[in-house]
Amino acid sequence: MKKIRKLNIYLEKRASRILVGDLTKDGPNYIFEYNKEYAYSKNAIPIGPDLPLKKRTYKSIKLFSSFKDRIPSRENPAYKEYCRKFNISEDEDNELILLSTIGQKGPSSFIFEASIESEYENVNYLFFRKELGISIRDFSHAFDIPLSTLQSIEKNKFLGKEALKRIEIYDMFPEVAKFEVQKNKSLIHGDKFRRIEIFLENKIQYKLNRGLTQFKINT
Q: Could you give the C-alpha distances from 1 to 87, 91, 189, in angstroms and in order?
């Protein structure tokens, strides 16, 4: 299973779900932090007696008991079955993995879920742009992303997470990239537009041949 670095904790009610906070492991320490909006809300309830709402951040060498109690005992006759259900090893000892799988739901309304963090980085964007064979300015026009944002990403001055999320989608799903580029066609030089279009069409065809296309956007 992919390494988990952070868990998001939600309070799930009949018709709503509220972010309560997150649990991370930094070196040997577990750190839990209540979401600011939740912590200051009228109806907030603590996750457990060891994590009162009097402060937002807690740090501990050992996993907080309110979380530890959610993990079934290995002595439980159904422990092996729980592990099989979530496709984890019976010998798994990473407590964040255990919490996000066999400890995900319990008797309370709190739910633990692994925080999915993209591994798409600045270098992936650079490779994608070079594959397209266009300048940073052309990329800005083609995908409607501010030039200043792309310049910062290229200089590695900041992560540009939101922009990188969009770029990752365009890179992973050429159908989406083609749709976006066609919307912005009027801003792109004709020869460059055709170059981009041919590259994306080839990428779409490659995915189709491998049976990897997840969906198709009609344009």
A: 9, 13, 45
Buried b (16+ CB within 10 A) or exposed e, 70-109: bbeeeeeeeeeebbeeeebeeeeeebbbbbbbbbbeeeee
DSSP state of 188: S
9 close to 28: Cβ distance less than 8 angstroms: no
Distance (Å) of CA 172 to CA 3, 132, 141, 168:
22, 13, 19, 6
Alpha-carbon distances of 34 from 6, 7, 65, 79, 116, rounded to whole Å = 13, 12, 16, 30, 19
pLDDT beyond 90 at 65: yes
User: Which residues, in sequence order, are bridge partners of residue 18?
Assistant: 11
Give the Cα separation of 58 and 22 in Å (integer).
11
Does residue 200 sit in helix, strand or coil?
Answer: helix
pLDDT at residue 117, rounded to an integer: 67
Identify the pLDDT of residue 107. 66
Q: Cβ(50)–Cβ(64) under 8 Å?
A: yes
What's the pLDDT tens digit per position in 22-55?
A: 999 888 999 999 999 999 998 899 999 999 999 9
The structure tokens listed for 183 are 């919307």
* AA identity, residue 147: L
CA distance 215 to 143: 20
pLDDT of 159 > 60? The answer is no
Check whether 217 has a pLDDT greater than 90.
Answer: no
What is d(CA 160, CA 14) in angstroms, rounded to the nearest whole number? 36
